[in-house]
Amino acid sequence: MTQVEPRPTARHLTGGHRIAPVDAERWPDVAAVPKASWPVRALTASVLAGALRRLPLRVRYADGGTLGLDGPLIEVCDPKAFHARIGTRGLIGFGESYMAGEWDAPDLVGALTVLAARAAHLVPAPLQRLRGLWAQRQPHAQRNTPDGSRTNISRHYDLSNELFALFLDETLTYSAAVFRGFPADRPLLAAAQRRKVDRLLDLAGVHKGTRLLEIGTGWGELALRAAARGAHVTSLTLSREQRELALQRVRRAGYADRVSIELCDYREARGTYDAVVSVEMIEAVGAEFWPVYFRTLDERLAPGGRVALQAITMPHERMLASRDSHTWIQKYTFPGGLIPSTLAIEETVRDHTGLTVVARDGFGEHYAETLRLWRERFTDRADDVASLGFDATFRRLWTFYLAYSEAGFRSGYLDVQQYLLTKETSTR
């Protein structure tokens, strides 16, 4: 078992701000710094110095030492804890160190964007080849079996409908919007989300009388807009909180006769549909189950039907390098999650289904803007988040998560795609 050192009672952050002490019961791996020997801390500091001194960053340590070529500032107020966490837990430790207040950045997105753009080269090649020895492995308990998926989904999406409503727009849409131009203004976010939904419904050919299967309900906006076109919608979700609110929205809109929202795993879906739409759900499937997911799309789709899929993607080589590692995102925000590559999606469709990938459109810059608007709103509503019972550590966690994600898209490390998949009409 890793030994730990108790945390001090509070942290000074950039600008002299303080955060409350970390709740050790709620956040055990944040509340205590893992014990790391001097050689581990020294090696970590050396590796970091070698990487940071070549980057367009300014890293300033509490003792006055600095690294980097200039750029966004990172201030490390507790170098010993910072190096101990990274030396024992890698990137998970880097995120936990931020949650603990051991480092901060006035322009967090800017700093993380620099790091994300060079993610493949931050760790020296010899250590990269030994990744299997030092990187943490994904917990077996987070496998996306039917029971595991319910638990994983609940940990994120059942946090609180009120929490998500604080930073999302009126459509309660939690995926990339499509804007008409940049920079985007917050009042335009709802229209941009509806534009995204309409593009997907157009892609799937949804119109009056269409039998539509939606895998991943969210809070119901796509089902509502499909019903408004006259479609008959069956929508599947594993989130009880989301389903409850989505059903309320469906009833208020007067579409209860056209929309059914089922608490159901995609593997349990039945029936045949003219179209299937799934928005940013594949990221929660896991590589082990990608063939099952795409076979489900195939089996549920009628001959001549269309699938519209929206998916976050990452470069294939990075996906292969990290797919078995346990990440900070998986530990704290999306347990069991894995972002696929475009190649992985297209190979899985080819090898495991009778579907054909007809079109693909990437629009990662739109996701960066979507995340910026969410992050700014989350920051502005920090007091309201606290009033819901979420502590300071949770708020730093979510600030880091939203900034980390935005940086991924701004750097090009992440992208988001809309796919059209079709199924040939049977000739028999």
Description:
The chain has 428 residues and is α/β, with parallel strands linked by helices. The protein has two domains: 4-136, no CATH class; 141-422, Rossmann fold, CATH 3.40.50.150. The chain has 18 helices and 15 strands. The strands form four sheets. A seven-stranded mixed β-sheet has the order 11-10-9-12-13-15-14, with helices on both faces. Strands 6-5-7-8 form a four-stranded mixed β-sheet. A two-stranded antiparallel ribbon has the order 1-4. Helix 11 (240-253) links the parallel strand 10 (232-237) and strand 11. Helix 12 crosses helix 15 (342-352).
Strand-helix topology:
Layout: E1 4-6, E2 11-12, E3 18-19, H1 28-31, E4 32-34, H2 38-52, E5 58-61, E6 66-67, E7 73-76, H3 79-99, E8 103-104, H4 108-117, H5 125-129, H6 131-134, H7 146-157, H8 161-167, H9 189-204, E9 211-215, H10 221-228, E10 232-237, H11 240-253, E11 259-263, E12 273-279, H12 290-300, E13 301-313, H13 316-322, H14 328-332, H15 342-352, E14 356-362, H16 364-380, H17 382-387, H18 392-411, E15 415-422
Helix pairs in contact: 2-3, 3-18, 4-18, 9-10, 12-15, 16-18
